[in-house]
Structures are given as structure tokens and as C-alpha cells.
Amino acid sequence: MMGLAMHQKAHCTFSTKPLPGRALAQAQWSTLLMPRQPAATTRPAIVTTSTAARGKPLRAAATSAPPTVAPSTTTPKQLGYHMPGEFEKHQHCWMGWPDSPYLWRENAKPAQEQYAAVARAISQFEPLIMLTNPESVETAKSMLADAPNVTVVPVPINDGWARDWGPSCIVLDDKKTGSRKMAGTHWDFNSYGGELKKAMGIAPQVPNWDKDNAAGRAALQLAGLEVFESALHLEGGSIHVDGEGTLIATEETLLHPSRNPHLTREQIEDELKEFLGLEKVVWLWKGMAGDDAVVNGHVDNLACFIRPGVVALSWCDDVNDPQYERSTDAYERLTSATDAKGRKIEVIKVPCPPPLFRTYKEASGVHPDHVKLGYVPRVEGERLPASYINHYIANGGAVIPQFGGPGLERATETDAKALEVLQAAYGPERKVVGVKSREILLNAGNIHCITQQCPAAS
């Protein structure tokens, strides 16, 4: 894909509400944000290079680690690889241990407790590898001592968001022999468009993401898997696939001016298809309300494949909630679309929790120097992007966020309803398990965001 290895700086930024220090940048950024588009639009003509020229895995990352490029001069799709669905069998799960006081409150201790709870829940169903900063290895081992199916591995990281900086695993199946070769696509992770956000004076999630970018590659290398490099600025939480050639994503994320402003929608689609073995991309409009300022509307908070042809959607019935328009628009687009196999998509509505907001205590618990050092500000009263869709599908199980508790009776009710709906959706072959995860939510994501699956070899 011509020009994919090039970076172009753009003066743009984004926020959904006027927060201290963000108002001017918000106004500048909003002029670049795309308006709501109808489900079916006419695509402009574009010029791309030939398949042969496009085929070599590309890279444009600013990291200290040298790239490990696959020896082939063709893309994964040309070699026959595809990305399996998350509901297919896994070899293991990756996570990344949180330890930054500039991202997590109270020196990350509450977050570590909930990360450990998530890891224990997943490890009931499959092995889990916890990638951990070397200086935090002993802490992680101590807190996971009661989880023998969890292995703590020292790997430098900036943040514990393994879904987003982690690799997207792909497989090459030999239908004659039944054998499977595994590899992975390593995206050029840049902390949710961090370079262009910094150019506008808006703090990205972290001020430096070199370790995270390298950790995605390291995960594949430690697993002995071949690495395909893509220069696309992409996060794993911005995509969901059905394992049969279909991907869903939001325009809010993939077309956001901070990510790949030098590429058209068609060029982004082309790169996704080539590096994940896809045939079709179904575009949704926006992600969850409250998911705007940092990750910019990841699809993994809004919708996910339960199995081929079936999508679970975060659903809001309250017409006065900003989420209502987002959910109804996604429902209309999904139910009017067909997948790569030509099937109509069935949608299962999963109730949203009630609107949840960051408290003063939660905001003030982050290290007081986090803004000065270039980390994203944590502001009291911000809406949190709570969703039950942001869960992890494991071998024989599914681990679901839970938000209720004292004073949160409505959330307790929706917690129970979501477990009921998802258990029915997955059926008796999976055990649905709920885990409290508000501390994870405070960092703008949830269980799916902190996990990344590695598919099974057979």
C-alpha cells in the first residue's frame, strides 16, 4: 500500500466535553471530525499500488526495538492466513500487569487487585501469560500465587492494555492434513494517535509508548510465532472479526484524524484485509458514550461477534442518553448488512449499565504529577464507558465486567441481566463469569481491553 510507511503530522485533537485545558484544542479538533454517515455510502475512487508491490509487510514505528519482518514478500492474506474469531479455541491468553501511578490510582494497587481477579477467572478456562515490567514481577507473582495456570513473564511495558498494543494472531490452516500454522500481525501502535494528539497539546494515554509497541512483537517472539509488520496505526480493541472473513469497526476510531490521516477509508480497509485475511469490513458509526477522549470509540466496547453471523450489541433504551443514538445506529447498520458469507447479521441486545461517572476520590487518587508528565488527565465527573460487551471469551467460558455495589443498585440489576443475556447467547458450552472491574474502567476500558487471545494450534 503506497504511502503507508509515511507519517504526516496534522494539527488536530479531540474531546467530547470542555475539560480544563482542553477547550481550545477541542474546538480545533471538532472541525476535523467526520459527521455521521449513512450505513451505505458511495466510495471515492483511489489509486493504490499493485498487489505485488503492496504485499511486503510494511512498518513505520518509532521504537527502539528493531522490526522482525516476516521473510515472505507477500501479505498474510496472500499466503492464506486469516484471523480466527475470538470464540474459537485458544492456546493461551496474554495480559499486561498494571503498575504506573500516573495511570492508576493509589499506586495501581486497586487496579492490580482487579487485574488479578480477571486473570484468576480466565485461568480457570485456559493458560494465561502475564507480561510484566521486570521491577513488578515479584508483586505480580505474589498477587497471583493462587492462580497456578498464570505465568508471569518479564517484558517491559508502558501500560497494561494488552489488547491494544498486543498482536493480532492469524492462522494458516491446511484442510488436507488438519494442521495449522500460527503467526501474528504486529500493528504500529502509537497510543491511540498519540503523536498527532501531542502535536495539538492534548495528552495521549501515555507520553511514551515505545515499550508497548515493542511488547506486541515480543509476545509473538516469546511464543515462537512469525511476525508480520503493518505500518497501520491500530489498536486491537478497534476491531472484531468473525473468523470467516468479516470485520466490524467504528468510523470514530479507524477514521479518526489522529490515527492514519494520510490514508483513505479504502486504503485502511485494504490493509486490514491483507493483514488479517478478510473479505469484508462492516463500518459502524461511534462507540460508547464516554469512550471518546482517549481511545475514540473502540468497537470492542460496543459490539462483538458471539459466533459467525451473530453480534452482541451494547443496548440503551433511554432516549435521553447519548448512548441511545449510538446503539440504535449500530443496530440499523448491523441488521441491514450482510457478512462475508452473504448472511444477514443477527443482533443480540445486551443492556448497558446506567451512566457511571468518575468520582473526586477516583480522580484525585492518581499521582498529582500525571498531567505535568504528559499523561491523560483524570477529571472528576467524566462519564466512564461502561459496557458488558467489553468481555473476554475463553475456552469454555466468558469473563464479564460487573459494575454494581452499594449505592449502585441499578448497575447491580443490569449486571445480573447482562450475565443472563450473555449466558443464553453463548449457550451451555460456555460458563459466564462476572468479575468486578470498575478500577479497570477508570482507565477507559475493561476486560477485553486488558486481554489478548492466542489461538490454538489445532
TrEMBL record:
Pfam families: PAD_porph (PF04371). InterPro entries: Agmatine_deiminase, Peptidyl-Arg-deiminase_porph. It comes from the Eukaryota. SUPFAM superfamilies: Pentein. GO terms for biological process: putrescine biosynthetic process. One of its GO terms (molecular function) is agmatine deiminase activity. Keywords: Hydrolase. HAMAP family: Agmatine_deimin. This is Agmatine deiminase. It comes from Elliptochloris bilobata.
